[in-house]
């Protein structure tokens, strides 16, 4: 994938960033889509289908149009044509293209391209994670010992998250009950004396910052399999951990995640969070 036609994708997105856009909404007024999302998705699928005609595809805009998100044992490409569409609409340059690949329901590799900064993040199972050829490593930030896990709570978190920069995204639901839970979760981490909580508007690039060691943890309710597939491989290959918000193994279709530089930190954050229910990708 490193030699794939990123130049054409980059040209389309860079050009569209400077132009007026026709913007539509999907599940809410904050869940946006543009004609460029569709154009880039069609370009990616067309190119891959020409090379791999027997492979399956899960893609964001196709799913929004009613295509089923079912991950089978067949080789499957999982595509987000423009992650950070709200940023894109407002000409805020934190946008990326994300392509993951799974075989027998196991994530094998992923690529994420930050178009405006020409950063190509790649990860392949068992072969490491890289950004423009430079190896990625998570920060490994933690101060805890294993026996602390049995006592995990907000007081303990204060000592273990006191040097952590945590990333998250708001999610498309903006009803009062959902916003209350979202702000409560952020408040819990701030009470735990985390250095900071950041929202950058692109879940895939936030996860790449974690993989590169620029942040220590990430959590979100409401993201989708196309947000997670490529980034999960990159984080794992950079030495990080990606789990469900319940503390169990990652469920790619569950629309929720905690990722961190260490398992201990991931578990602490998972235990602090209140669940926001977004359903499942494979049930929509």
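^ Assign residues to that structure.
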């Amino acid at each position: 994938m490193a030699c794939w036609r990123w130049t054409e994708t980059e040209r389309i997105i860079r050009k569209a960033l400077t132009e007026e856009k026709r913007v539509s909404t999907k599940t809410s007024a904050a869940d946006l889509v543009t004609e460029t999302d569709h154009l880039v998705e069609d370009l990616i699928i067309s190119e891959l289908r020409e090379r791999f005609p027997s492979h399956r595809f899960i893609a964001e805009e196709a799913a929004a149009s009613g295509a089923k998100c079912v991950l089978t044992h067949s080789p499957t490409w999982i595509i987000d044509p423009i992650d950070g569409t709200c940023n894109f609409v407002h000409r805020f340059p934190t946008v990326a293209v994300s392509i993951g690949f799974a075989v027998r329901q196991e994530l094998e590799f992923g690529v994420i391209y930050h178009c405006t900064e020409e950063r190509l993040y790649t990860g392949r199972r068992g072969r490491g994670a890289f950004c423009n050829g430079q190896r990625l490593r998570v920060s490994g930030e933690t101060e805890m010992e294993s026996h602390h896990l049995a006592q995990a709570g907000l007081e303990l978190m204060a000592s273990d998250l006191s040097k952590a920069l945590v990333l998250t995204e708001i999610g498309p639901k903006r009803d009062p009950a959902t916003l209350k839970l979202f702000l409560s979760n952020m408040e819990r981490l701030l009470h735990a004396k985390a250095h900071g909580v950041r929202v950058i508007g692109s879940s895939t690039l936030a996860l790449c910052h974690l993989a590169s060691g620029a942040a220590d943890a990430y959590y979100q309710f409401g993201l989708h399999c196309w947000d997670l597939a490529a980034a999960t491989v990159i984080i794992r290959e950079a030495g990080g951990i990606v789990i469900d918000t319940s503390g169990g193994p990652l469920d790619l279709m569950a629309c929720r995640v905690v990722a961190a530089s260490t398992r201990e930190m991931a578990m602490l954050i998972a235990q602090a969070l209140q669940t926001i229910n977004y359903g499942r990708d494979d049930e929509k």
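The longest strand covers residues 106-114.
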